[in-house]
């Protein structure tokens, strides 16, 4: 199998009946870049910018951020690099910015923090824009969005950063901006968000946590964290449908895309891009290359008729075996 995976490294993810699905990667550490390029990644669907923030002992300056961002943008150019604005709080802590809360998952996290601290947000967005000067492969993505007002405010700030930099003489242009769908309230506003932004990306790790009311990191309830819960799949289906009504690209960067069975279902639902960890990319490509789109569609139809996460999981396992 290892040999087979190596052989397809430079081949596209294309089904037996010719359906092509772009496979991108999730990155954070600088080492992820080389690993991703080696696996034939066609873009970065999620660069977790909080990781370079986490491995330091104070907020990095604009100049320091430019250096980390430029490395990712340059290594991947002309392929797209989707940078998520700082997503701290919840399960992601910065040692020098402690947040003490009773209920951190429902508290101050993601876009909520950066909108309350425009100085942190502006420095980061300026660094992203300056890092992309002359490359034009930057995309900016907003985490943990719940309301349109948050999207509008973030867009205003990104616009302001662009104008400021242009006035300062930098050759920057406004990048595509997208929102993550991670909160149940956001699911039902997908179409509205899609009108405001250039792309939608589903953070299925958080979305699963919030739909099922199951902490993604609590071992006591880990058995209840079911990525294939029918409610999760229904939400994933709905999101694509709504975003496509506005003709916007929909990608997914949660772990469900990194599971071969999940990847086939997402492809069949119509996801335009799957973004996975570099280590999982070869097996996802292998799964796609070994199935026809019509078989994947049939699999989705049979899964939609099931009402239990475990049954769905089993159906996926059996089908994958049958596909080889
Ligand atoms: C997610 O929530 O699915 C996601 C991709 O973001 P993170 O895992 O970094 O919260
Ligand atoms: Mg998330």
Question: Can you describe this structure?
Answer:
The chain is an alpha/beta fold and 324 residues long. It has helices at 2-7, 31-38, 50-54, 62-76, 111-116, 118-131, 148-167, 184-187, 190-196, 204-212, 230-245, 260-269, 281-289, 293-304, 309-323; strands at residues 23-27, 44-48, 81-84, 138-142, 177-181, 199-202, 249-252, 273-277. Helix 6 (118-131) packs across helix 7 (148-167), helix 9 (190-196) runs parallel beside helix 11 and helix 12 packs across helix 13 (281-289). It is globular and about 60 Å long. 44% of the residues are buried. Bound molecules: phosphoenolpyruvate and magnesium ion. Belongs to the PEP-utilizing enzyme family. It comes from Nitrincola lacisaponensis. It is found in: Cytoplasm.
List keywords for this structure.
single chain, 324 residues, alpha/beta, eight-stranded parallel barrel, 15 helices, 8 strands, 48% helix, binds phosphoenolpyruvate, binds magnesium ion, phosphoenolpyruvate--protein phosphotransferase
């Amino acid at each position: 199998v290892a040999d087979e995976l190596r052989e397809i490294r430079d081949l596209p993810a294309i089904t037996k009946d010719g359906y092509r699905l772009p496979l991108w990667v999730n990155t954070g550490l600088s080492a992820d870049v080389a690993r991703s390029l080696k696996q034939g990644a066609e873009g970065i669907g999620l660069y977790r910018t909080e990781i370079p923030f986490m491995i330091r002992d104070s907020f990095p300056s604009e100049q320091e951020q430019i250096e980390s961002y430029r490395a990712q943008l340059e290594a991947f150019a002309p392929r797209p690099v989707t940078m998520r604005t700082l997503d701290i709080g919840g399960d992601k802590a910065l040692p020098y910015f402690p947040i003490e809360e009773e209920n951190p998952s429902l508290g101050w996290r993601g876009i909520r923090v950066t909108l309350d601290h425009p100085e942190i947000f502006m420095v980061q967005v300026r660094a992203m824009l300056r890092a992309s000067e002359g490359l034009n492969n930057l995309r900016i993505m907003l985490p943990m969005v719940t309301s349109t007002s948050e999207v509008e405010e973030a867009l205003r700030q990104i616009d302001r950063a662009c104008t400021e930099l242009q006035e300062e003489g930098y050759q920057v242009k406004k990048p595509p901006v997208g929102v993550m769908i991670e909160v149940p309230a956001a699911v039902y506003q997908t179409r509205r968000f899609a009108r405001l932004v250039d792309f939608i990306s589903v953070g299925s790790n958080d979305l699963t946590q919030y739909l099922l009311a199951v902490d993604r990191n609590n071992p006591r309830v880990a058995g209840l964290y079911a990525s294939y819960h029918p409610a999760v799949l229904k939400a994933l289906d709905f999101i694509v449908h709504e975003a496509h009504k506005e003709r916007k690209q929909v990608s997914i960067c949660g772990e469900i895309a990194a599971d071969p069975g999940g990847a086939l279902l997402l492809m069949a639902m119509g996801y335009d891009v799957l973004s996975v960890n570099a280590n999982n990319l070869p097996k996802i490509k292998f799964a796609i290359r070994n199935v026809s789109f019509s078989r994947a569609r049939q699999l989705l139809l049979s899964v939609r008729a099931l009402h239990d996460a475990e049954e769905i999981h089993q159906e996926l396992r059996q089908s994958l075996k049958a596909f080889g």
